Amino acid sequence: MIDRRHTLSKEERLSWKRHIDLLFAEGRSFISFPLRVVYLPVEEKELPSRVAIMASVPKKKFKRANKRNLIKRQIRESYRIHKYDLIDPLQEKGTSMLVAFLYVDKEIRSFAEIEKSMIKALKALKDK
């Protein structure tokens, strides 16, 4: 069995402004409620890891930072647990991907609902 580390390192987080601008300018999106997923396949050389992600929660819908941070933690945790569902097929194809998870609901959902949505989103990303 392959030893897999279920971590979310700095290399796996999308932080370069150039990559973020490129993702939102040229990326495609779909909704896996309560998440909107924006993705962009890129050349393997550009990223230090196979997939770079970011999580975003609108300030307009959640004024308090602690609520936004709670939702972002839930999104990152659900991705961290299930990330190999996306990484393994990308490794076989030899491509990389930029992904942004945007929270679109007006209410805070439970972790189970966000995790279910994340599984559905990763399955859709794997197919694309």
What is the element layout, followed by pairings?
Blueprint (H helix, E strand, L loop, with lengths): L16 H10 L1 E5 L2 E8 L8 E6 L8 H18 L1 H10 L2 E8 L7 H17 L1
Parallel strand pairs: 3-4
Antiparallel strand pairs: 1-2, 2-4
Helix pairs in contact: 2-4, 3-4
Protein model, in words:
The protein has 128 residues and is of the alpha+beta class. It has a single domain (11-127), classed as 2-Layer Sandwich (Ribosomal Protein S5, domain 2). Helices cover 43% and strands 21% of the residues. The protein contains four helices and four strands; from the N terminus they run H-E-E-E-H-H-E-H. A four-stranded mixed beta sheet has the order 1-2-4-3, with helices on both faces. It is globular. The model has no long low-confidence stretch (mean pLDDT 92). It catalyses: Endonucleolytic cleavage of RNA, removing 5'-extranucleotides from tRNA precursor.
Q: Which secondary-structure class do the elements indicate?
A: alpha+beta
What's the CATH first level? Alpha Beta
**Computed CA radius of gyration, to the nearest angstrom:** 14 Å
β-strand amount: 15-25%
How is the CATH topology named? Ribosomal Protein S5, domain 2
Percent range of helical residues: 40-55%
The helix/strand order is HEEEHHEH
Q: How many structural domains are formed by the residues?
A: 1
Number of strands: 4
Number of helices: 4
- CATH hierarchy: architecture: 2-Layer Sandwich
Across the major sheet, the strand order is 1-2-4-3
What's the story with the biggest beta sheet? 4 strands, mixed
Poorly predicted parts: none
* Shape label: globular
Task: State mean pLDDT (0 to 100 scale).
Answer: 92
| Distance between the first and last residues' Cα | 27 Å
